[in-house]
C-alpha cells in the first residue's frame, strides 16, 4: 500500500517533527554531557539547588539507579531495539502528540546509547555520562527526556488519545470509551 497525497504530506510532517525534536533533545543531552566531562572531571561537586540538585560527574555502566551494571551490552542491545521500535511506531502513528513523545523516547534512549558506544572498550560496554545529582539518584538530560516521554505516554493512554486517529474527529479530543463509528445505515 502506497501513501497518497495528504497521507504522504502528513507523514513527512510527522517525520520532520520527529527529527527536529530528536535533534534538539539529543543536542542538549550531548552538549551537557560534554560540558560535564570538561568541567567536572576533577571530581568536584557543584551545588545548584542546595539539598535537591548538584552537579557531579559519574560514569554509570548500568541502567537507572545503576541496575544491570554487569550487563551493559544487554542494556545497549535493548536500547537499540527500543530505538528501532520508536521509529517503526512513528511510521504507524497518525497522531502528532504520539509523534512528539516517540521522538522524546527515541532521543533519551539514543542519548545514553551513544555514550555506551562512544565510551566502550569492548562490545557495547561503555559507561553513560551522568552528572545531575539529586541526592538519591544521579542522571543526565537523556534520563529526563525519557521520563517526560514515559509520563506523557501514560497520560495519553489514560486520557484516551488514540495512537492512530482514523476517525473523522479531531486529534485534539480524546476518544471516549463508548465511542463507536456509525454504520452507513445510521446505527
TrEMBL record:
Protein name: Lipoprotein signal peptidase
An annotated GO BP: proteolysis
Pfam family, one: Peptidase_A8
Acidic residues: compositionally biased ranges: 166-176
Role noted for this protein: This protein specifically catalyzes the removal of signal peptides from prolipoproteins.
Domain of life: Bacteria
TM spans (from-to): 70-91, 98-114, 134-158
Localization (cell): Cell membrane
The organism's taxonomic lineage, starting at the top: Bacteria, Bacillati, Actinomycetota, Actinomycetes, Bifidobacteriales
